[in-house]
């Protein structure tokens, strides 16, 4: 016995020594942790200085931007330090006792102090890689794949969910645990759904959410997943939930717009709720309530401290010392229900709104509203009779509709539900109840739903409905008989599903907006794993779009349609070439050559702003010579039409008679004399002249027609090809000027092919111009010259 005790003592002693060393190390670590040093601020720093330092460090050490291996740990320390110093109570506790949790007291037992220290610095069994026992409070929030799709996903259309993704061996998950618990305690009573997904056990669900690492915090609204990307601070998580909600849930109400808001029940077909409070911003509790009942009720918020709401406060006699909720239906002057409480609870608000979520006489606009207003009979004591008015939306029906509303207000009973439909919008329903007969006047039908398949028992009130006192008395008598004898409804029918009268385009726009916001959020925070298919589709579409635009912008005019492979050119008789011509500016066959006319519209793009390296070959003609010259011009330049840098145009000298003289006069002095030397004795007839215009470098080469009938080898026909040939041909040109006037029109361009070859060789004389004369200003330029 003694030997056994002696053997046990060393083990106990070793365990005690181990715990002592562990405590010393923890105390040492606690003494080394200083949020002031981490944020780089003094102990007397203001909240503004602390916030500024935190933003700077959080931006610097954010794991998505900083690739340092220690960035995540440093980011967590910065976030925790800011959480301590931004809260005055926590900051005071740390300054006094070196503790971070305001719930911990200095005068605690040693065991409680050690546990408090453990909670503050997130130390548990996972430090030694022992499986840690899960917190019992978290077990009720655990989500499974089937539960998420059947319960949570549909419920996200009524309330937002805050979901934490964690795992057993996640040390960083333990760091955010205190903030997570505080956030849950704050948001869950407001109506926010809470969920926890274990990455190790629910990989299928984590993959569906797009969460591939722990810890991750996800917001779920309307079935849409949003990731939280900021520092894990309670204020940030609260703002994250608030940002997930739609923007126009609650409308700001003042003296200027409250009447329009309350009178909109006719269009919106919903009651209206007004919340009066002293704070200038809409409380999150009110936004969450509005989100849950947005399909049934419209919500407005009134700031009692705003001077623009004095008339509103006086009219409804609002107590300014406590939040007040007013609910209005068809009467915008008097609320049907009021609630006032200092500590407004979510349960109270839900009960208040759910008891009044229908108008006294709502209009049936979809099947969902019909199911909620007139549910299917389940038990005898839960019978619900629907009194339905079939009417119209024209002005003539308004008195009868108003009388029906007055009757419904005076005969409120739990078993009776009053509603109306417009016959024009709900024709299938009305035909089933009226036996396919169009109602010339409003009709009242009393019905009871028997099955979800649409089977009803009903009875039409004889005599129709005009809103007279006699009609009211007769309808009241019918309802009394119905309550005494449930078999009073003897006709049966199967009703079709109601048409959805809601504006679907608005729903589509809201869905598109939510989708764009989701894409922007994913792009901003690099959720690339889910975004890769969408990004690939977007960039492919953009590449195809811009590629097509660029190809069209830089393609030749004649390349808009595919060309057939052109056979080798064979000499053709002139008659055949002439037969292929056309009287229009564009020959009908694209494989011939395309010639465009220089006009006020095409002049800038075809000359002034011509791309560098491109030349526009322009034929000058008149109305009389247009057909013959265009056919001959097309034949001569046909072999050069495949050149990508050449463009072919023509200029009508009868329309722009001053352009050619203005162009020739704008050349330099010596060149001007050479250009005009042969024109001294000639009349200003430029038909048959061809110009090669380089719009970028501002120069041109000139081809002038010369008589070629006597000597076909006469080089004088190529005047102005080069300076040498020009000097030799000048006497010949002058001596034959009298005969040049008698040149046949189709012979004027006989040597154009040779001139084009020398143009491509670059051996022609280039005449420089300071600027291209405008077609509209050519006359003025010529006069100034």
Which descriptors apply to this entry?
DnaJ_C16_autophagy_reg; 785 residues; alpha/beta; disordered N terminus; DnaJ homolog subfamily C member 16; single chain; 20 strands; disordered C terminus; transmembrane helix
Question: How would you sum up this structure, described in words?
Answer:
- By secondary structure, the chain is an alpha/beta fold.
- It has a six-stranded mixed β-sheet with strand order 15-17-16-18-19-20, with helices on one face.
- It is extended, with a radius of gyration of 45 Å.
Helical proportion?
40-55%
Radius of gyration: 45 Å
Please state roughly what percent of the residues sit in beta strands, choosing from under 5%, 5-15%, 15-25%, 25-35%, 35-45% or over 45%: 5-15%
Helix segment count? Answer: 31
Largest sheet: 6 strands, mixed
Terminal-residue CA separation: 132 Å
Mean pLDDT: 77
**Anisotropy-based shape:** extended
pLDDT < 50 runs, ≥5 residues: 1-9, 100-134, 558-589, 678-682, 708-742, 778-785
Strand order of the largest sheet: 15-17-16-18-19-20
The number of E-state strands comes to 20
Structural class: alpha/beta
Give me the secondary-structure topology.
Blueprint: H1 2-32, H2 35-39, H3 47-61, H4 71-85, H5 88-97, H6 110-120, H7 145-155, E1 161-166, H8 171-175, H9 177-187, E2 193-198, H10 203-209, E3 216-221, E4 224-227, H11 234-244, E5 250-252, H12 258-262, H13 265-268, E6 272-277, H14 284-292, E7 298-303, H15 310-315, E8 324-328, E9 337-340, H16 346-354, H17 367-373, E10 385-391, H18 398-410, E11 416-422, H19 427-433, E12 443-449, E13 455-460, H20 469-484, E14 491-494, H21 504-524, H22 528-554, H23 574-579, E15 596-597, H24 603-608, E16 615-621, H25 626-637, E17 646-652, H26 659-665, H27 669-677, E18 690-694, E19 699-703, H28 723-735, H29 737-740, H30 752-761, E20 767-768, H31 778-784
Parallel strand pairs: 1-2, 5-7, 6-7, 10-11, 15-17, 16-17
Antiparallel strand pairs: 1-3, 3-4, 6-8, 8-9, 10-12, 12-13, 13-14, 16-18, 18-19, 19-20
């Amino acid at each position: 016995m003694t030997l056994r005790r002696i053997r046990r003592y060393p083990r106990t002693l070793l365990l005690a020594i181990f715990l002592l060393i562990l405590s010393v190390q923890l105390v040492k670590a606690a003494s080394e942790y200083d949020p002031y040093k981490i944020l780089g601020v003094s102990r007397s720093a203001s909240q503004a200085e602390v916030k500024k330092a935190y933003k700077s460090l959080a931006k610097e050490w954010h794991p998505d931007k900083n690739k340092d291996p220690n960035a995540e740990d440093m980011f967590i320390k910065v976030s925790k330090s800011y959480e301590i110093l931004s809260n005055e109570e926590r900051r005071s506790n740390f300054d006094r006792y070196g503790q971070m949790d305001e719930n911990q007291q200095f005068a605690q037992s040693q065991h409680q102090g050690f546990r408090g220290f453990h909670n503050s610095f997130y130390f548990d069994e996972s430090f030694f890689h022992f499986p840690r026992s899960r917190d019992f409070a978290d077990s009720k929030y655990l989500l499974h794949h089937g539960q998420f799709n059947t319960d949570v996903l549909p419920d996200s259309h009524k309330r937002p969910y805050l979901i934490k993704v964690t795992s057993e061996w996640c040390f960083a998950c333990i760091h955010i645990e205190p903030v997570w618990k505080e956030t849950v305690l704050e948001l869950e009573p407001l109506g926010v759904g809470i969920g926890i997904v274990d990455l190790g056990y629910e990989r299928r669900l984590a993959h569906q959410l797009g969460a591939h690492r722990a810890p991750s915090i996800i917001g779920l609204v309307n079935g849409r997943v949003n990731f939280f990307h900021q520092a894990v601070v309670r204020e940030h998580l609260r703002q994250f939930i608030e940002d997930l909600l739609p923007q126009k849930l609650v409308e700001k109400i003042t003296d200027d717009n409250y009447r329009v808001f309350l009178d909109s029940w006719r269009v919106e077909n919903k009651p209206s709720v007004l919340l009066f409070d002293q704070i200038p911003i809409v409380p999150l509790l009110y936004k969450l309530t509005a989100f849950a009942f947005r399909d049934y009720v419209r919500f407005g918020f009134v700031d009692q401290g705003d001077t623009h709401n004095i008339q509103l406060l006086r009219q409804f006699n609002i107590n300014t010392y406590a939040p007040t909720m007013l609910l209005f239906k068809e009467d915008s002057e008097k609320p049907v229900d009021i609630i006032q409480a200092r500590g407004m609870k979510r349960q109270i608000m839900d009960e208040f709104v759910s008891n009044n979520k229908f108008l006294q006489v709502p209009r049936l606009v979809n099947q969902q509203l019909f199911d909620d207003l007139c549910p299917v009979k389940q038990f005898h004591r839960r019978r619900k009779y629907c009194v339905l008015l079939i009417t119209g939306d024209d002005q003539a029906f308004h008195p009868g509709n108003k009388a029906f509303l007055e009757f419904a207000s005076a005969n409120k009973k739990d078993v009776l539900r009053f509603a109306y439909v417009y016959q024009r919008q709900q024709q299938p329903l009305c035909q089933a109840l009226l036996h396919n007969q169009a109602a010339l006047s409003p009709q009242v039908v009393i019905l009871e739903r028997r099955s979800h398949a649409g089977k009803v028992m009903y009875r039409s009130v004889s005599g129709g409905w005009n809103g007279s006192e006699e009609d009211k008395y007769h309808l009241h008598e019918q309802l009394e008989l119905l309550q005494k004898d449930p078999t009073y409804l003897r006709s049966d029918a199967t009703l079709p599903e109601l048409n959805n009268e809601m504006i679907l385009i608005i729903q589509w726009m809201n869905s598109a907006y939510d989708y764009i916001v989701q894409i922007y959020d994913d792009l901003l925070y690099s959720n690339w794993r889910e975004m890769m298919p969408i990004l690939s589709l977007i960039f492919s579409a953009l590449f195809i779009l811009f590629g097509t635009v660029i190809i069209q912008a830089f393609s030749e005019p004649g390349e808009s349609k595919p060309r057939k492979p052109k056979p080798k050119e064979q000499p053709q008789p002139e008659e055949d070439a002439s037969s292929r011509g056309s009287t229009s500016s564009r020959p009908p066959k694209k494989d011939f050559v395309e010639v465009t006319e220089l006009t006020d519209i095409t002049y800038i793009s075809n000359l002034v702003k011509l791309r560098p390296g491109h030349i526009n070959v322009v034929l000058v003609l008149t109305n009389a010579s247009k057909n013959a010259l265009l056919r001959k011009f097309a034949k001569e330049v046909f072999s050069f039409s495949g050149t990508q840098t050449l463009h072919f145009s023509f200029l009508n000298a009868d329309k722009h008679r001053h352009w050619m003289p203005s162009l020739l006069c704008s050349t330099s002095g010596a060149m001007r004399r050479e250009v005009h030397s042969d024109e001294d004795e000639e009349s200003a007839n430029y038909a048959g002249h061809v110009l090669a215009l380089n719009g970028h470098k501002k120069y041109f080469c000139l081809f002038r027609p010369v008589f070629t009938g006597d000597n076909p080898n006469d080089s004088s026909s190529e005047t102005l090809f080069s300076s040498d040939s020009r000097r030799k041909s000048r006497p010949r040109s002058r001596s034959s000027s009298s005969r040049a006037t008698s040149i046949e029109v189709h012979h004027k361009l006989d040597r154009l092919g040779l001139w084009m070859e020398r143009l491509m060789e670059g051996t022609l004389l280039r005449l420089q111009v300071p600027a291209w004369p405008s077609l509209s200003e050519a006359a003025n330029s010529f006069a100034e010259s």
